[in-house]
Amino acid sequence: MNGMTIRDESWQGSVTGSADNARFSSSQRKAAKRRMEHMLSKKTNNADVIGYCCMRIPVSDLKKSVDFYCNGLGYELNSADYQFGEAHVALKNGNGPGIFLMETKPENVTQLKFVFPRSFFITSGTGHVTMVEMLTNDLLALHERIQQAGAHIDKEPVFTNDFGYFTFYDPDGHYIRAVEERGVYFELKQRMSSTLERELTEHEDRLIRGLCEKTSVEQQKFLSSLISEIRGS
User: What are the Cα distances from residue 49, in Å, to 42, 52, 53, 91?
Assistant: First the structure.
């Protein structure tokens, strides 16, 4: 009887082991199938991030920040709930994501800047780098405007062959760089102003900017060559 019991237990163990192996093999097959499906989906799935919905910037005084971003930087106020502590500002031309200014306690405002450990051309006196960079259509005019708004200017305007920029702090110490691109528009504007021996009117400036913004790459190359010919004449 003892021998039979041993044989029976051995047989049961053999059956159990086979079942475990079968289940393990099934699990492996399912995992392999999932891996294959994932590989195929990576080849056929065209989902990408295609833009930005919004930015949220913490501020300690909502009304003060709304005044600075709208009257100082030229944003448009879309909506504001001062009791709730949130305001939505956006670019007047409708480009880019909107900014939500959200009021919190001063000690909870995390300033938008960070220390970069290596040499970098846009660095404050404390070694910080900007996290937010804004385009402007007139760097020097914006510089004067935000100075009048009481902003702390960190680096005065600098111009290169391709762009100009300066850095400043908003009322909560967020470190920001303003940039003006000096492409075809800038060259054409400067040349026409020099030829006319006067500053362009606002209407003329809008016409030139609109022309440059709507031209294709080939048309921009043509404008560049035209400017070169005018310079040579």
Answer: 15, 8, 10, 22
